[in-house]
Amino acid sequence: MSRVVFLNGEYKDYNNALTHVEDRGYQFADGVYEVFSVKNGKLIDYTGHINRLSRSLNEISIKYPINIRSILFHMRNIIRKNLIVDGLIYLQITRGVAKRDFKFPKNLDSTITIIGNNIPSDEYDKVFEKGINVVTTRDLRWKRVDIKSLNLLAPVLAKQYANESNAQEAWLIDDDGFITEGSSSNAWILIGKTVYTRPVSSSILNGITRKTLIKGLNKHGYNFKEKKFNINDIKKSKEAYITSATQYVMPVVKVNNKKIGDGKVGKFAKIFKEIYLESVQLKS
Ligand code: PMP
Q1: Residue 52 Cα: closest atom of ligand 1
Q2: Nearest atom within ligand 1 for CA of residue 186
Q3: 159-216 pLDDT tens trace
Q4: Partner of 44 at 20 to 30 A CA spacing, among 22, 85, 197, 250?
Q5: Residues belonging to the active site
Q6: From the CB of 92, is ligand 1 less than 6 Å away?
Q7: 63-88, pLDDT tens digit by residue?
Q8: Final residue of a structural domain among 104, 119, 134
Q9: Is any ligand 1 atom within 6 A of the Cβ of residue 48?
């Protein structure tokens, strides 16, 4: 069976799923998205992701094109039709189709797309074993990155810079020299026995993986602080990590080509990954 995607109420062959040239997502990045991880055919932290999607839509006054229960139904169908065991669901909603104009008509029919990807679980394990390299770069994004919008040009360029610098992620630096987050992940360091990540504000995306890991850290009695950190703090850290729906907890072994700790995956990386996986909610 060939790959199937969901587009505006229809299941379509991947190669024939086309949107209108004047879809506002295409012309203005006027839309939002979510990425759900799938593990053993089940959605990880569905409720957290769908609640964040509702918030993102609400913040930019886009309505759901179909009700939330139907979205879950179609996501399950995409998992089933594409035989996804481990992988991800990409869900995107744009404001819809209208003649190009910055201001938008109210009550447009929003466009919904659901795409599924199979990702063998050993791909994650292979990356985890080695850990990843991070480089830092200026945070050039707009001031409402708490909204998971399609406006991703700055993260695209940051990730490309990382890729060309033999790194897998870029950590973004604000005007005061603090790390906001990764181009597509939240950023963490371990100094002494305390784990640090930046507090939630409009300068970061409130990661669902972040939230679940915090729940697990608290449950297991680890010292955890929501506090901004900068390059000097990174130099003092014994371990570092990124978190995201697709990367879970991923160890960082180098930042700007300098080793974190001994430059190998630390023992807490493994513990925190296990704590995260134990803390997630699975929806079949
Ligand atoms: N920050 C940014 C900028 C992201 O793109 C992502 C990935 N969606 C995250 C953080 C992590 O969020 P989550 O854990 O919900 O995937």
Answers
A1: 15
A2: 10
A3: 999 999 999 999 999 999 999 999 999 999 999 999 999 999 999 999 999 999 999 9
A4: 197
A5: 148
A6: no
A7: 999 999 999 999 999 999 999 999 99
A8: 119
A9: no
